[in-house]
Amino acid sequence: MEIVTKFAEGFMNLFQTGAQTFIGWMTGIVPVVLMLLVLMNTLIAFLGEDKVEQLARLSSKNPVSRYLILPFLSAFMLGNPMCLSMGKFMPEFYKPSYYASTAQFCHTSNGVFPHINPGELFIWLGIATGVEQLGLNSMELAIRYLLVGLVMNFIGGWVTDFTTAFVCKTSGTELSKKVKIHA
């Protein structure tokens, strides 16, 4: 009977721990994510959707703005998966590379900007809890992850340009590299 009792206590403890974690999120991370979403929507409303779209079109002109600046701004302003929609303003040739860079950025920014990819927040929170139990600062890790992610996501986008060029060459496909900005 003692084994059954211990098992039942352990089983209930699992749910109590889950409930405590949930309440911690409701008083900690959820309000932060909500305020970041409000800020994002306010900025887009203030700037105007047409200006945000024009920024995306202009950013497609060079690799730094295509795979570093625009993915950062899109992920911060629109979150995952909406940030991927900014790729529609890219020339056809650069769409795969933009997607590669932006999709990766949604993962590497979660520690600093949890509103970008709230669906995977539990992964970051698990890592952060382990780091904090070691007596280390989880925000330092989050910033390092963000900075390394920015560099690696840029490289990933640019490497995808070469991959796209190779696939186009071997398949005889021609994709446009011209930016078409409509006033």
| Uncertain stretches of 5 or more adjacent residues | none
User: Which word captures the global form?
Assistant: elongated
Compute the average pLDDT.
85
Q: Helix amount, in percent? A: over 70%
User: Secondary-structure element order, as H and E?
Assistant: HHHHHHH
Beta strands, count = 0
Measured by DSSP, the beta-strand proportion falls in under 5%
Based on CA atoms alone, the radius of gyration comes out at: 21 Å
Sheet with the most strands, sense and barrel status: none
Count of alpha and pi helical runs:
7
Measure the end-to-end span: 77 Å
Helix/strand/pairing class, anyone?
A: mainly alpha
Fold and architecture overview:
With 183 residues, this protein is mainly alpha-helical. It contains 7 helices and no strands. The protein is elongated and about 75 Å long.
